[in-house]
Amino acid sequence: MKWSTLKYLFKEGIIGLWRNRTMAVASIGTIVLCLLILGMSYGVGTNIDYLIEQIETKFGITAYIKEGLTELEILNLRYEVEQLEDVASVTYISKEEALKNFSADNEDESLFEMFKEDNPLPASLEITTVDIKNQGQLIERLNNIEGIDETVYFQNETQTFINIRNTVNYICYGILICLIVVGLLLMSNTIKLTVYIRKREINIMKYVGATDSFIRVPFLIEGMLVGFIGALISILMVTFAYDWISEKAANVSGVLAELSLVPTAEIISSLIPMYLALGIGIGLIGSMFAIHKHLKV
């Protein structure tokens, strides 16, 4: 196909989009909603996985060691823990190191001098897991080891994150399917209206020998443009919204202050091809459906 012909067909697609701008805006709006919900589901799921990964590496499991163990017994205890399934790494924290860390966390060096002679903090093993899903079984095995007094880990927090991710995904995917159907119907009606408006022109084109593809392509271009515009708007909205959320999340305090969200650039770079493919795909499929049903060429 010649370049001049392609330019003409593309121009006709733009003209058709402008002629039916009211329906086109409705179609674009529906596609934007579809993509925003998809982005929400993806963003929540990706960030929860990222947060869980950080919890695994930054917090993991703390196993407090019973008082009175010799250095050799502690070495044997550490070796025994390292051999357990699902253990990624084990770090020994002595009583003195625990007190130093406590003083640093509270930004009060006098605490170390105050309790140096009579340190109330126990020694511990800081354990990171291979897979946080198996943390519960690992805890049971650790509690059965002689020499371990108590274990502490973020079970409730991690399980809450997992539950939130699953709930958001179920809700978002359900809404997404409904909106995709609505988007296809709106896109189909937009093309149907274009076919009706250009009915006389199409008949003349057929009479003078225009090929089927020559008549169909402008409608397909119109649908793809609607999808592309919807994808572009969605990308801009998600970028600004995610930047704002990231900025607010950076100001939280407490344990969550040590965690971070996935960088905006990483999220957006993943969403751009997804948005473009889905947005243009909805526009193209809706157009093809309308052409097949309403354009008898």
TrEMBL record:
<comment type="similarity">
    <text>Belongs to the ABC-4 integral membrane protein family. FtsX subfamily.</text>
</comment>
<comment type="function">
    <text>Part of the ABC transporter FtsEX involved in asymmetric cellular division facilitating the initiation of sporulation.</text>
</comment>
<keyword id="KW-1133">Transmembrane helix</keyword>
<dbReference type="InterPro" id="IPR004513">
    <property type="entry name" value="FtsX"/>
</dbReference>
<dbReference type="Pfam" id="PF02687">
    <property type="entry name" value="FtsX"/>
</dbReference>
<feature type="transmembrane region" description="Helical">
    <location>
        <begin position="267"/>
        <end position="291"/>
    </location>
</feature>
<dbReference type="GO" id="GO:0005886">
    <property type="term" value="C:plasma membrane"/>
</dbReference>
<dbReference type="InterPro" id="IPR003838">
    <property type="entry name" value="ABC3_permease_C"/>
</dbReference>
<protein>
    <recommendedName>
        <fullName>Cell division protein FtsX</fullName>
    </recommendedName>
</protein>
<feature type="domain" description="ABC3 transporter permease C-terminal">
    <location>
        <begin position="175"/>
        <end position="291"/>
    </location>
</feature>
<keyword id="KW-0472">Membrane</keyword>
<keyword id="KW-0812">Transmembrane</keyword>
<dbReference type="InterPro" id="IPR058204">
    <property type="entry name" value="FtsX_firmicutes-type"/>
</dbReference>
<feature type="transmembrane region" description="Helical">
    <location>
        <begin position="173"/>
        <end position="197"/>
    </location>
</feature>
<keyword id="KW-0132">Cell division</keyword>
<feature type="transmembrane region" description="Helical">
    <location>
        <begin position="217"/>
        <end position="242"/>
    </location>
</feature>
<feature type="transmembrane region" description="Helical">
    <location>
        <begin position="21"/>
        <end position="44"/>
    </location>
</feature>
<feature type="domain" description="FtsX extracellular">
    <location>
        <begin position="61"/>
        <end position="150"/>
    </location>
</feature>
<keyword id="KW-1003">Cell membrane</keyword>
<dbReference type="InterPro" id="IPR040690">
    <property type="entry name" value="FtsX_ECD"/>
</dbReference>
<dbReference type="GO" id="GO:0051301">
    <property type="term" value="P:cell division"/>
</dbReference>
<keyword id="KW-0131">Cell cycle</keyword>
<dbReference type="Pfam" id="PF18075">
    <property type="entry name" value="FtsX_ECD"/>
</dbReference>
